[in-house]
Amino acid sequence: MQYLARLDGLAKGVTIAVMALFVGTVFYAVQAFFDTKNQDLFLVTAFLVIVSAVTYFSKPTSFSIDEYELVVHRPHGVFRTPVENIVSIERIDRKSLGWGIRLFGSGGFFGYLGIFYYGSIGRVSMYCTNRKEMLLVITEKSRFIISPENSNAFLAEWKNLNR
């Protein structure tokens, strides 16, 4: 079964604010380029376009699990983890994560994506869009956090497969 990855309120707000700022910057940069022929602002805008595109194409759109693999579906490609490598999947909340730092990624723009470090669990990759639906997936070699819509049903499906 496929579980959607919907943005929570903070991620929606951050995404809308960043995109509004981005559109304003692009408009200003294009106007400034034609007025002054200054390429500096144009290059900054190109960089912002690239960063935004990479972030968008990295965000999860849905999650699925079957007897063979757990899949994080993204606009550009998928991230697959064989079920036999999964040690556990458990619910986790912001309070139990404790303090954290983003090492590389996005802290709200199109979700919570990338590599983070949390005091309670250490280094973790995040494919998260909703902080209220977080599940910690522990494999033999890594750990990552996903946030499928209706995480209780996802967890129940995992437990059913894991019998």
Automatic annotation (TrEMBL):
UniProt-listed InterPro entries: Bacterial_PH-related
Name of one Pfam family that matches: bPH_5
Keywords: Membrane, Transmembrane, Transmembrane helix
Transmembrane segments: 14-34, 41-58, 99-118
Domain spans labelled Bacterial Pleckstrin homology: 62-159
Record protein name field: Bacterial Pleckstrin homology domain-containing protein
Phylogenetic classification of the source organism: Bacteria, Pseudomonadati, Bacteroidota, Chitinophagia, Chitinophagales
